[in-house]
Design brief:
Strand order of the largest sheet: 6-7-8-3-9-10
Number of domains: 2
Shape: elongated
Helix content: 25-40%
Largest sheet: 6 strands, mixed
Radius of gyration: 25 Å
Distance between the termini: 31 Å
Strand content: 25-35%
Number of strands: 14
CATH topology of the largest domain: Rossmann fold
CATH architecture of the largest domain: 3-Layer(aba) Sandwich
């Protein structure tokens, strides 16, 4: 549904916001983009939506080029931006009706009504937008992105600073749209949300796409656990007997670490600890931990830096 090839964006100052990004997103897929502030997430979305002009590469949406067929591609896309930008003196009903008309679509009160009800805005449909709360204005932005029935929906930090009720409403709506075949790309700082709803997860940093993986594959990487044995004294080199067992020495020399799959059935923890003491090492503490998506994300970003 979305095909991005060697996309780059460099500003006049020389700053490279996007560095040769290539990415394919299938119809009906939910792709979550994770990255620190300034990583290039919003620039990438804005380039696909026609808000930012890329300096190199190409993008197609639904098989149509975003530059040559810009009217067609923009009609296929709905965008929920980070900023709250609404018309203060209009009502939600009039605002959505006008937004639908901007795409050359005929009036359809049934569609407007459904969108307002799905986002719990129906009882506010005749109120002036200026009287709505911040959360209600956020809901209205989502409604505006959906009222022309797009095939692709971009959500740029959609739940930043919103209440739990809106977040839950949004994810129910996202699930329903996916079932209808809508392709969804979202950026988020909430890693647990990406883990909960995305089919694939991408990590972007410094304008580069570091990783795009199926969530299941990523979860398999998250399945690694480690046994960490803290030592009484600093160790300069790992004893051969522990190296053969599969241990590695921590950078500070104060612990030895053994990595294993959390689903492995036959891990002899007792035998591993016996090997440590047999090597003549004094044990200060022992603990295990499982790697998380957040740790994988942080490691990728740090490695890229």
């Amino acid at each position: 549904m979305i095909e991005i090839s060697n996309l780059g964006k460099q500003y006049a100052s020389g700053f490279v916001a996007l560095d040769n990004i290539s990415l394919s997103v299938k119809k009906g897929e939910i792709l979550a983009l994770l990255g620190p502030n300034g990583a290039g997430k919003t620039t990438l979305i804005s380039s696909v939506c026609g808000i930012v002009n890329p300096t190199s590469g190409s993008v197609t949406v639904g098989g149509f080029d975003i530059i040559k067929d810009y009217r067609k591609t923009r009609s296929l896309i709905g965008l929920v931006p980070q900023e709250l930008t609404t018309d203060a003196f209009e009502t939600p009903w009039d605002n959505l009706t006008f937004s639908r008309g901007l795409f050359g679509l005929p009036k359809n009160p049934q569609v407007v009504e459904k969108v307002l009800k799905d986002l719990s805005l129906w009882d506010k449909k005749d109120d002036r937008i200026m009287t709505l709360s911040g959360g209600m204005k956020r809901r209205l932005l989502i409604a505006k992105a959906l009222v022309h029935e797009p095939q692709v929906l971009f959500l740029d930090e959609p739940t930043a600073g919103v209440d739990v009720a809106l977040r839950q409403d949004m994810w129910r709506m996202v699930d329903e749209l996916r079932n209808q075949g809508v392709t969804i790309v979202l950026t988020t700082h909430y890693i647990e949300e990406a883990e909960a709803i995305a089919d694939r997860i991408g990590v972007i940093s410094g304008g580069k796409l570091l990783l795009v993986e199926d969530k299941g594959t990523l979860m398999a990487r998250m399945g690694q656990k480690q046994l960490k044995v803290e030592l009484m004294d600093t160790l300069e080199a790992l004893p051969k007997v522990l190296e053969k067992q599969g241990f590695c020495l921590a950078d500070d020399g104060l612990s030895v670490v053994y990595h294993y799959d959390k689903d492995a059935e036959e891990i002899d923890i007792g035998g591993l600890l016996q090997a440590v003491t047999s090597a003549g090492l004094g044990v200060k503490d022992i603990h295990t931990q499982q790697s998380s998506l957040e740790e994988i994300f942080v490691d990728l970003v740090e490695d890229a830096a």
